[in-house]
Amino acid sequence: MSTLNIAIIFPFIAAIVIPFLYNKIRKLHIGWFAMLVSFVLFIYFARYVPRIANGETFANTINWIPSYGINFTAYLDGLSLILALLITGVGTLVILYSIFYLSSKESLGRFYTYLLFFMGAMLGVVLSDNIMVLYVFWELTSISSFLLIAFWYQRKRSRDGAKKSLLITVSGGFGMLIGFIMLYIMTGTWSIREIISMAGSFTDHALFIPAMLLLLLGAFTKSAQFPFHIWLPDAMEAPTPVSAYLHSATMVKAGIYLVARFTPIFGGESIWFWLVTGVGLLTLFWGSFSAVRQTDLKAMLAYSTVSQLGMIMSMFGIGSAALHFGNSTVSVVYTQATFAALFHLVNHSTFKGALFMVVGIVDHEVGTRDLRRLGGLVTLMPITFTIAMIGSFSMAGLPPFNGFLSKEMFFTAVLTIGEAGIFSLDTWGTLLPVIAWVASIFTFVYSMIIVFQTFFGPYKEERLEHPAHEPPVGMLIAPGILALLVIGIFFFPNVLGDYILTPAMMGIFPSLPAADLSVPISAWHGFRSMELWMTIGVIIFGFALYKTRKKWAFVYKLFPEKWSFNSFYSYSLEKLEEHSTTITNSYMTGYLRDYMVYIYLFFIVAIGGTIIYTGVYAFDISGNSSVSEFEWILVLVMIIAGISVLFAKSRLTAILLNSILGYGVATFFVIFRAPDLALTQIIVETVTTVLFLVAYYFLPEWKKEDVPRKSRNVNLIISISVGIVFTVIALTVQSGKLFESISGYFENSYELAGGKNIVNSILGDFRAFDTMLEVVVLLIAGIGVYSIIKLKAKKEDESVEDQ
Amino acid sequence: MDNYKPNNMILQTTTSLIAFLLLGFAVYLLFAGHNSPGGGFVGGLMTSGAILLLNMAYGSLTVKKMLPINFTMLIPIGLLIAIATGLGSFIFNVPFLSHTFGYFTFPIFGEVELATAMLFDFGVYFTVVGVVMTIILSIAEDQ
Q1: Residue B3 touches partner A, C-beta closer than 8 Å
Q2: Does residue A307 sit within a domain?
Q3: What is the distance between the alpha carbons of residues A401 and A393, in angstroms, rounded to a whole number?
Q4: I need a labelling partner for B104 at 20 to 30 A (CA). Which of A244, A404, A487, B78 fits?
């Protein structure tokens, strides 16, 4: 059964092959090859339908990182199958459409590579059982979508749209990753199936709610839910086949898939219910409300996609309430909402795909998508008009199109949930149908605008770039098939329901009896049903609003443009950059003295703070030897020299005072019986003083630094504090002897190393490795000085650094 | 340093004496290091001190003729000696830088202690001489 894994990898392999084929074969459009790949996959997945309908599921694991439990597990059940069929099926049609849409002057190799890359990533998302692998594919869809949106990278708007979508979806995806890790911490497994089998056992865990919220963040950003929907309209800068494929049928459904997949784990919680339902309804309303004001056809479709995705999302939210009741007959009523969601998921892909393709045709043939320039195309493009009408009416929820069925089921869902009596629905439940109904009215309005503004009214040829005519037949095949599906599903909804939707329900509600999950879809609810009257209301009010839309257009001006989420997004990006520059510039001054201040401040705070916090400072000088007079005098001399250096007026004085310190230290070595150190110290001090004097001639003027008094005081305080901290550490360490010193071992140096000089034996024998590397340090220093002095550019030479 | 030629006969005469005393002391320090204060590092510094004194008295051109040594080359030579003494321990199948020592009787010197740690010290000695001389001569010769 490893063919499932191969099916995921297959588009990636094809994506690698495409550039080579594209360079070799110039005569044949490379899209045909991509289409073949997609079609083969569609047939492959379609062959699973009967077996999945019988309740079988398929899984296969290929080890990837077994030691961490991260394995490439492909798992196919009803829910995955729906998405897989959509991805490959719509993919085939979109590629077919794009073959005629994109001119052969475009860099087609790139386009189809990205597209197949995306297809593979998307298949990976829906078929992965391991959540880490799912995350990998999830980010791959973000990346490939980014590449596709910026396909015309010469345009600034394309680049901006791609950047925006990447920023939003990847931030959400990153949050989701954290949620996944939390899930792993709670359950100890990466496998979704195993997590589902444990569902309910970890609801009291402290990480349960954070994991749920982060997961929803990922799902909401990907599926363009309120307020993360702003990237979707900007992603319309992509070529139209991409918009049709990614931003209506597949990628934006990844978030919805995620919500559906994790419903068995988080469903039944009131937070999950209210977030998914509430955000979904809000998105539904806001998307449809905003769509009406758009003048660009693609932007209108983008907002309508946002709105429809919100509707699907809210239905999944309502359906999750069923899990609250557990295995009982009550819960079956609410599962119907989930069924409706799945149904609408499929329906939306069909009619939205068709609509995008129609808009692409209009754009392609007359050169504009602006509603103010379009009109009267019905007689010139009758087939295109027919398809547009089917898609739009289905979107508006009119019979005899499939959108009508799912919209009726949506109304049923929002009406029944108000009576559930859980999650404080008694208070707010009545609000749900109202919002849903109002949003549906707006949906009706913009659907009418798409049909009537584009195809009816006066034909304005002078405003179009080309005179309108029907597109080539090839371009009409794909939207035609989708339009046929729209009608076909209306007349035979139960075929789809029984074979595809019911098995998916078993995946979402594994705890409920399979027999209860099958919902018969009927077009006619009877006159006494509320749903019918709601639909009639939508049509009446929608028509009235459509006719009077110029009179109430002022509503959109109530909220000024600068209060929109788009402006908020660009404003915050701009301000983030501005402020981070300001902050960085404020402390990255370029002055070494400032950086020294930071380093010492850190030292004082970290070390001094630790000392105070842990209270380790303890001075015990009882064991110390007495201080002789000679030592007192020496210390006094060194202190005077040390302080005088700070006030020295000339550099020569400073150098000499510094060497006093050096010789003082050497004298201390003598007193404390370290002849080797004393010898070395005297010579090194002499050599460094000589070096100072050699360099003296070349050094710039010694002058008082021109720093403000305030920072001088700061420096004074910092240097005193550093001194205090250091002294405290030294005294503390001195008084806290924890164990005997190891010097006893080295006292045997004559027997062990044949040397009577212990210091030299340690340097040359016991710890010769240190000495060796110190010799290397000397080497580096010598070579450094040599090369700095010898290798400098002469007057006529070019600067070495610039090469 | 070479631009003016004052008559510094006293300096040159005393230098010829002192420099060799210094060099002798440096060699003594190097050899004495194993059993008394001293060692490769101090010995190397002292040697460079002697050569510097010669430099100051006679000028660097004369010293170059007297001691035709490329001091920069001494650095890798010294380092090679130090590392070679470490690598030598592999021949006897002992860890890196394991030193040993022994007593040998020579015709003139009598019984003498020889230690491989001394070889290591030679390496340090040469490197120190090379580095100090390279640094000071590069700076001094810089125009």
Answers
A1: no
A2: yes
A3: 7
A4: B78
Nearest to B75 among A761, A772, A779 (CB): A779
pLDDT digits (tens, 9 = 90+) for B28-58: 999 888 888 888 899 999 999 898 888 888 8
Please give the Cα distance from A455 to A385 (Å, whole number). Answer: 7
> Does any domain span residue A61?
no
Check residue A102 and give left, alpha or beta (phi > 0: left; psi -120 to 50: alpha). beta
Chain B partners of A764 at a C-beta cutoff of 8 Å?
A: 33-34, 39-40, 99, 117-118, 120-121, 124
Hey, how many other C-beta atoms are within 10 angstroms of the C-beta on A11?
A: 26
Q: What is the DSSP string of A466-494?
A: S---PPPHHHHHHHHHHHHHHHHHHHSHH
A524/A642 same-domain check: no
Q: Which chain A positions have a beta carbon within 8 Å of B81's beta carbon?
A: none
| Helix A270-293 × helix A297-320 angle, to 10° | 160
Kindly state whether residue A191 falls inside one of the protein's structural domains.
no
Compute CA distances A172 → A138, A139, A166, whole Å.
11, 10, 10
Print the domain residue range for A301: 282-547
pLDDT level of residue A637 (50, 70, 90 thresholds): very high
Q: Is B44 on the interface with A (CB under 8 A)?
A: no
Contact A763 B39 (CB under 8 A): yes
pLDDT higher than 60, residue A638: yes
Q: Tell me, yes or no, whether A707 and A783 share the same domain.
A: no
Same domain, A311 and A347: yes
| A728 and A786 together in one domain | no
**Coil, strand or helix: which one is A456?**
coil
Nearest C-alpha neighbor of A775 from the set B118, B98, B23, B82: B82
The span from the CA of A23 to the CA of A26, in Å, is: 7
For residues A502 and A600, membership in a common domain is answered with no
Q: Give A771's contacts in chain B (Cβ within 8 Å).
A: 82, 120, 124
Query: Could you tell me which residues are beta bridge partners of residue A370?
Result: A296
Q: Are residues A604 and A737 in the same domain?
A: yes
Predicted confidence band at B4 (pLDDT cuts at 50, 70, 90)? low
Q: What is the mean pLDDT of residues A123-130?
A: 91
Q: Is the dihedral of CA A408, A232, A10, A193 positive or negative?
A: negative
Q: What is the per-residue DSSP string for A690-750?
A: HHHHHHHTTSPP-------HHHHHHHHHHHHHHHHHHHHHHHHHHH---S--THHHHTTHH
- Tokens encoding A60: 């296969």
Query: Mind giving me the DSSP string for A678-690?
Result: HHHHHHHHHHHHH
Looking at chain A, the whole-number percentage of residues with pLDDT higher than 70 is 93
User: Does A419 share its domain with A527?
Assistant: yes
- Total tally of structural domains belonging to chain A: 3
What separation in angstroms does the CA of A593 have from each of A227, A703, A706, B11?
47, 16, 12, 44
Rounded to a whole number of angstroms, the distance from the CA of B82 to the nearest CA of chain A is 7
Question: What is the DSSP track for B80-140?
Answer: HHHHHHHHHHHHTT--TT---EEEEEETTTEEEEEEHHHHHHHHHHHHHHHHHHHHHHHHH
Domain boundary among A485, A518, A547: A547
Half-sphere exposure of A357 (CA within 13 A, CB side): 37
DSSP of A141-169, one letter per residue?
Answer: HHHHHHHHHTSSTTSHHHHHHHHHHHHHH
Amino acid at B2: D
Least confident of A199-208, A349-358, A717-726: A199-208
The answer to whether position A529 is within a domain reads yes
Neighbours of A431 (CB within 10 A): 14
Collect all residues of chain A within an 8 Å Cβ-Cβ radius of residue B79: 775-776, 779
One domain, residues A612 and A510: no
* CATH number of domain containing A676: 1.20.120
**Residue partners of A602: CB distance under 8 A and separation at least 6:** none
